[in-house]
Amino acid sequence: MEKKETIKIEILITYEMEDLQKLFTPVEFVERIVLFDGEELYRDRSKWHIYKNLDDPLKNITDGLFHKSNGSNNHTAKRNNKIGFFKMFWRKLFCK
User: Fold this and answer.
1) Model-level pTM?
2) Rounded distance, CA 1 to CA 17, Å?
3) Count H helices, E strands: the chain?
4) DSSP E strands: which ranges in the chain?
């Protein structure tokens, strides 16, 4: 039996707020880290108003996987038209 190689990709997103004691504290900064087999591949930190207007592959992945539907706070998986995006992301990471 042929052994298959496993690759682990992690996307960590941290939201930083000014005062955690207040109930409705706005998000100030967003930090994103991409780990590839445990090794840091990418890291960035931006202000919230800049992050929410970004249009980059990493934000598209996270928005596509977890999005708010109908204005609710429930996150649901959105799979339509995302497979092609993952293929493009995979090619950018691993093809030369």
Assistant:
1) 0.58
2) 51
3) 3, 5
4) 9-17, 27-36, 39-47, 67-68, 75-76
